[in-house]
Amino acid sequence: MSSPLARFDPRRRAALTAVADLLIPSGDGMPSASEAGVAGRWLDEVLRLRPDFGHPLAAVLDGLKGADPAAALERLRSADPAGFGVLAEVVAGGYFLNPKVRAAINYPGQQSVAIVTEQPPDYEQDGLIASVIGRGPIYRPTPGRKRDR
Amino acid sequence: MLIVGAGASGAVAAKRLAEEGFDVVCLEQGGWPDYKKARAPFPDYELTSGRDWAWDPNARNVPADYPVDDSESDITALMWNGVGGGTVVFAAHWQRNMPSDFQVRSLDGIADDWPFTYEDLEPYYVRAERDWGVSGLAGDTAFPGGEGPPMPPVPLGRMGRRVARAHNDLGWHWWPGPNAIATQKYGRLNPCTQRATCLWGCSEGAKASVDRTYWPVAVERGVTLVTGARVKRLMMGPDGLVTGALYVDRDGQEHVQEAAVTILACNGIGTPRLLLLSATNVQPEGLGNSSGLLGKRLMMHPFGTVVGLFDDDLDSWQGAWGQHIHSLEFYETDTSRGFVRGAKWGLQPTGGPLSMTHSYPWGEENAIWGPGFHQQLRKRLGRSAMWGIIAEDLPEESNRVVLDPVKKDNSGIPAARIQYRMSENSRRLMAFHQDRAKESLEAAGAYETVIAPFIRATGWHLLGTAMMGSDPSRSVVDAWGRVHDVPNLYIFDGSTWPTSAGMNPTATIAAVALRGVDHLIAERRNARTPS
User: Fold this and answer.
1) Residue span of the structural domain in which B176 resides
2) Assembly ipTM
3) pTM for the full model?
4) How far apart are the C-alpha atoms of B74 and A21, rounded to whole Å?
5) Which of residues 64-83 of A touch B (CB under 8 A)?
């Protein structure tokens, strides 16, 4: 069985470039999808991480061949939402793997942030929890029992 | 003692029985979770989480899974078949049920009361919270007083503080979120590092999934945990008692595990499936099914999400996920709303950049693609918060689990099929709660809100298919989880719930299992066992 990468010859990569830039165009100081490398280096990386995307992505790109990319993309979206979902995940997934893109959107990844217990705790500050307590209990007690507060 | 299933209730039973010196074997069809695949610290985390930690067994499709045909269901059943069960991928919202949840017939005139009260279960909640490692704050005004969890709550965070203030202005309930997440070093758990990746395998060892908390202790105490062991059927003796189980290993070899007592802990689909598979000439409609209720009354909690967009940076890809705060303001029945029962809300992070592009929760009508992509991304990433809404669905006999007449798992055992339709009560309840959650976020300063579209893949909670009760003609198990028709067979998972409450169910599954296993131990001398 061929590796997922082997399926993506220059023709398929060109087809991906055409539709990827419709999904993520350049603007607001940000590169387009193809400028960020989603049909090149980052496609390779996405397929290494998600080889399960290889077959469906190839099928989607082959279905776009020869058509006007914008019209083909719209058709795909309405006729094959699952195929569109794979295409979108590959494009956006590759885009956000690019460290320059991550830096530009100020996203450092899921950071390790130790829990620091403030004194007083955050829920006590500015009378936050006191306000809830002041409103009293809101539950219905078990029949035959009284609210205990 | 034989336990089938190494999820929450199986773990609680195994550890407790081992503490009392019983000889315990647990058969689990999956393996141990591989936390090397928990990629939270790495750039590929969002891309790979759906590959290795998918919740839908039909999508994940690993050998440990069995197919669940959901073509006749409004909701897809989600589960994790392996050591730890659903706790491996649960959000760890640790919600006790409220007193009214046990008295729905008495208070609201619908469905059925549970055969015990909140007060009966309260000591077991307290014990379970210490055993699991739960964080939170005592004194929640939505519950009777009493002891709270052993660790302080996760931080409210910027979004939690904002919404808490808004609820105070509205006069609505909120409380720091109770979570099965360690906020300090606690036994085998590390303190949470707020990476907000709890649902895709906790890379930090901070989430109290039972593969990390209970099972290592149970195994150290002598429990034999057999992984890759798929039970084909339970075996019955001539005296009407269960004698153990026939199971298949990973190589397809069949084995018999005998036991004096058998406990099922396979979730609300796996348990009725196994009992239906175990039908005999004497019990041809499935073991324990003289009431005809086995597999019926499936409840899965319709789920809603409402997102708010804020001007401020809320750090909303970080934090426990988990819930920062919860609200039970609209939990209790108010018939003027046009429905009965209610829902719990949990305030949660919204994820990293890839999550901002998904159709859930953002909706196809708000699709991010095209010229507005970068602007939309800036609006959403780090500046959004969402309420997750757990809606109580009522038990209906037409919502059920049956054996699939066609599909089989990879051991050749008939698959499960679920038939589930969302009721009008559920639809009205959800619409009301979504509207109130929108108001909550607007009051907190959201300049825009999104009510997420309904999607099917939200059936995390599988409940009700082997109902407990005191009348054997109207229930499958008694108040202690013992099957009425088979006195040495017990069910400790969420199958036994008479009604679903509107809460994440793990806290109550754990407490009910603990109560049941304590009773089993206390009554052991009087129990009938196979000759």
Assistant:
1) 2-35+49-526
2) 0.95
3) 0.97
4) 36
5) none
